Structure formats: C-alpha cells, structure tokens
Amino acid sequence: ERRSEMTDDRKRCFVICPFGPVGSETRRRSDDIYENLIAPIAEACGYHVFRTIDDSRPGEITQNVVEQLFTAGLVVADLTGGNANVFYELALRHVSQKPCIQLAESDVPIPFDVAQVNTIFLDRSSIGGLRRAEHELRQHIDKAGLVSFENPVSRFYRRQDMARSGDPT
Fold first, then answer.
1. Distance between CA atoms of 130 and 167, rounded to whole angstroms?
2. Angle between helical axes of 84-96 and 152-165 (0-180°, round to 10)
3. Bridge partners (DSSP) listed for residue 14
4. Residue closest to 82 by CA, chosen among 17, 152, 13
C-alpha cells in the first residue's frame, strides 16, 4: 500500500526493534514481543501497527524507515539488546519531536542519553511481570497523543526559541 492509501498518520504505530537473522534468538524474541505484546495492544487502541521487516515493498530500506520515523503518529522502540540501529532510529524520532514509547527487558541497562525518558520494563519471567508491562504499555499508548513528548532534542529547541525571543519570561 502507498502511505497515502494507508491509515491516517496519527493512527499509525511504527515499531523499531532488533531483528537478527531469520531463525535467530533475536528474531524469535522480536517477533514474540511484537506479535504478542505490542501489536495487540496498539491495535486495540486503534492503531495500524507495523515494522519495516514485515513491509515487503520496493525502495531503499533506510528511506522507508526514516519516512516512518518522521510521519507515524506513534513509535514504539524496543531497546533490548542495545542494537545500534534501534538507537539511531530512536534519535531520529527524537528529532521529529513526536511521541515515542521505550520498552526493554527488565535486566537491560538503559544508556544515559535516553535513561531520562520513561521506559516500560518487561519482566518475562512471570505472568505478573507480563501483565504489568501490558497494562503500562496500554496506558502509554492511550496517553501518547495527549501529553507533551519531551526529549533532549525538544528541550534544546525550546531553549533556543526562548533565547531568540528576547523575552526573559
């Protein structure tokens, strides 16, 4: 589908996550989290949910990723594994100043630059841990369009605007 024929950008949820080769543990985990946690909850909240790995279409993959990062109404970023591509894509999303939800396995250290952003920690060792993550993800998605999304880039731009205004208030 062409983007113009798809769901309204505001109701599109783009998922960025580590993929790994087909059959790898990374791919199995990514598919499990996407198919059994993120997609069902985001769809129940009215979003069209997708990942680039599931979107078979012509064109440069990086261009497609960048387009989604700047146009989708919501991005969910799985930081598990410290994948460099995920962090690069998260940085681009920060530049867009649009909502992004971070999640990671409970034992994953979050790098300093993004540790200030609320992160949903996923404890897959218990049913209670999974339910807490489901509940928290649902709350974050429900509020994504209602709250101001803050990140280091948006704060930088706000400070620049304030400095240029010449108004100390």
1. 48
2. 30
3. 50, 75
4. 17
| pLDDT tens digit sequence for 24-76 | 999 999 999 999 999 999 999 999 999 988 876 777 888 889 999 999 999 99
* Ramachandran bin of 59, using left for φ above 0, alpha for ψ from -120 to 50, beta for the remaining angles: left
Q: pLDDT digit string (tens) for 74-114? A: 999 999 999 999 999 999 999 998 999 999 998 888 998 88
Residue 84 burial class via C-beta count within 10 angstroms: exposed 0-12, middle 13-18, buried 19 and up: exposed
- Give the integer Cα–Cα distance in Å for 116 and 119: 9
Written as one letter, the residue type at 151 is N
In sequence order, the β-bridge partners of residue 101 are: 76
Q: Kindly report whether the global pTM for this prediction surpasses the value 0.85.
A: yes
What is the three-class DSSP state of 51? coil
Task: Give 54's contacts (C-beta < 8 A, 6+ positions apart).
Answer: none
| Residue at 147: amino acid letter | V
